[in-house]
Model the fold of this input.
Amino acid sequence: MYEWFKFLHLAAGVIWVGGMALVILALRPVAIARLTPPDRLPLMAAVLSRFFVMVWLCIAVLLASGLWMLSGADMKLAPKGWHAMSGIGLLMCAIFAHIWFAPFRRLQAAVQAADWPGAGKALGQIHPLVLVNFTLGWLAVAAVIIWR
Done:
């Protein structure tokens, strides 16, 4: 049973971090280079809307599977990397919740109103937070692998 929870945990992490990589390294640069704000901003809002629903599902799987796996361990004896990953993961969840409830809501409202400067500002607030979460995701992976 443990291996199934570990698989679900890893799959959810891969989807979340992989999705951030796609948006940061492929979608965003191409959209900026090729599309005007009236075309780019609704596209990015729609893509993020779908991706962020997936992130919420990933968070639920990560928290549930992580809690289940940790519940079978003596936390005093657990590897330091597990503690680091747990803390980093909770921080990532908090950052994502902020993205969802603040700048992403403003992005959606601005796109709905065709307020391109407002939408651009909101998207500009999301980008650095996603970069932070992307970095934290890799730090969590590194902590578990290196800090045994």
